[in-house]
Amino acid sequence: MSSTGSTYGDIHRYEPARESTAAAIAIVLLTIVEVVFVFMFTYGLVNGWGLSDTGNMFLGGILAVVFIDLAFILALYRKEFLPDVVIVKKRRRKWEDLYIREDDVDGTDLGGDAWEQVKRAVYPYYKR
Fold first, then answer.
1. How many domains does the chain have?
2. Is residue 119 part of a domain?
3. From first to last of its 128 residues, what are the pLDDT tens digits of the chain?
4. Domain around 78
5. What stretch of H or E contains 41?
């Protein structure tokens, strides 16, 4: 679904999420695996597995698996259950990203009008 609106904030494209059952089952199974590995990590940490060299590497591996599993869960959730929305944004010139005007590209005086500098610090896109 697309719209022809070009004003700031209009939805340019909206594609609803697929919400597949297979993805929901995969997220549930990955969550169960996540809980098991978090329990293993906590158990190993409490029992002092990290005091030996191999135990420390084992705990590090378990922690890596925990975060990789979490990444898969979040990627599946984002892909299958969040809609794809593109909104119209205001295009800015390069110097506006630097919070300066085109005529101030070469710099400004340090001891210039102090009140103008305060206004620019508070509101960077202030117009004269």
1. 1
2. no
3. 555 566 666 777 778 888 899 999 999 999 999 999 999 999 999 999 989 989 999 999 999 999 999 999 999 999 999 888 877 766 666 555 555 556 655 555 665 677 776 776 676 665 55
4. 10-103
5. helix 21-46
